[in-house]
Amino acid sequence: MKILIADDSSTVRRLVAARLSADGYQVLEAADGAEAVELARSGRPDLLVLDKVMPKMDGFEVVRALREDPRTASVPIVMLTERTSEQDVLGGLGLGVEEYMPKPFSPLELSLRVRRLLARAAP
């Protein structure tokens, strides 16, 4: 299974990629929102781990773009971000984000949430 990690922090991308690679997933990485949309459309990931605050397009703009595209509309999304106000959480969930996790985060908890979402999305 393939997972796209979109975060402008290379440290966060490395941490998440290391955890998910150790779980046996193939990992794609994007450093900004526009790259995330492009990779989601071309790379066809099974799940996206997405930061809210990124250059070029923020996480909510990425979610909107992916949900409007039939090729990516059903890809599960985990929002992993420091932006955890009630307004941010409700905004993300309202756009179709399946999980909303605050930073700092537990890589093991992220791993479990990813596994659960992928199991639910499996045919």
Give a concise summary.
This protein is an alpha/beta fold. The chain has helices spanning 10-22, 33-43, 59-68, 86-95, 107-121; strands at 2-6, 26-30, 47-50, 77-81, 99-102. It has one domain (2-121): Response regulator (Rossmann fold).
Keywords:
single chain; 123 residues; alpha/beta; Rossmann fold; five-stranded parallel β-sheet; 5 helices
Descriptive report:
The chain has 123 residues and is an alpha/beta fold. It has a single domain, classed as Response regulator (Rossmann fold), CATH 3.40.50.2300. The chain contains 5 helices and 5 strands. It has helices at 10-22, 33-43, 59-68, 86-95, 107-121, and strands at residues 2-6, 26-30, 47-50, 77-81, 99-102. The protein has a 5-stranded parallel beta sheet, sandwiched between helices. The two termini are 13 Å apart. 33% of the residues are buried. The mean pLDDT is 95.
